[in-house]
Amino acid sequence: MYQDVLLRNNVNITGKGTRTMLFAPGFGCDQNMWRLVTPAFEENYRIILFDYVGSGKSDYNAYDSSKYSDLHGYANDLIEICAALDLKEITFVGHSVGSTIGMLASIQKSDLFEQLIMIGPSPRYLNDQPDYIGGFKREELDGLIDMMEMNYIGWSNYLSKVIMKNPNRPELSKELEDSFCSTDPTVARQFAMATFFSDNREDLKKVVVPSLILQCSEDVIAPIEVGNYMHRHLTKSTLRLMEATGHCPHMSHPEETIRLIKEYLAVGYVSILSKE
């Protein structure tokens, strides 16, 4: 069974350390997106990389539309990966929706995790005014989903630029676009629905594992109001505002991402809000 889990999620292990660092990609991304960050931790950590079922080099035959209709299906896979490798005291690093997936896994199995490091997380992408700004109106997200159905290639080209928001580095947007295009459109659409229409605000108060929130500046997908909201509602959370723009600092600004993670790991939980 355990071998099936590792093949299902295309699990790869690197690093020389005895401690464990597990990286969860964001929507439409695979484990290769972490390549600029993981080498900085390989000396001191055992690095665990994986792909979501339906993405990357995962086993597409394992895809179940019912199981993956919401984020809990992905969270359960994450727990199974941990069980298959007998992981404990994990430093979890998640990007975007990967942060939420890790958070949901930690609510089920808090003893597996030592800390949660969340890059550009959001508990809800939809605005719920007047009390919550998630970044999107309902009609905007409906339009994105409709565009996926009508013109998936055009959607991939458009959204990759919106997410990356580093126009002076078009190669980054192109890599993200290629990642979107390598995913089956039907699977991508269902993952998009599970991601962008989820509401995990009530789950924040259930999280007991210390967390670091890395909040990018000028992030359309997860604006600063979202980072502040998460910091207010997550106990034992530290919020760092980054100089990095866009939604993928591990790709566009890996040095800053690495530095802030290392600073947090050296100091631990500090309930502060600081700007670089």
Automatic annotation (TrEMBL):
Pfam families tied to this protein: Abhydrolase_6 (PF12697)
InterPro entries hit by this protein: AB_hydrolase_1, AB_hydrolase_fold
GO molecular function: hydrolase activity
Domain AB hydrolase-1 intervals: 22-259
UniProt keyword annotation of Ribonucleoprotein present: no
UniProt KW Isomerase keyword: no
Gene3D superfamilies linked to this entry: alpha/beta hydrolase
Membrane-crossing segments per the record: none
UniProt keywords, alphabetically: Hydrolase
Family: Belongs to the AB hydrolase superfamily.
PANTHER family: ESTERASE-RELATED
Protein name, entry field: Alpha/beta hydrolase
Species whose genome carries this gene: Psychrobacillus lasiicapitis
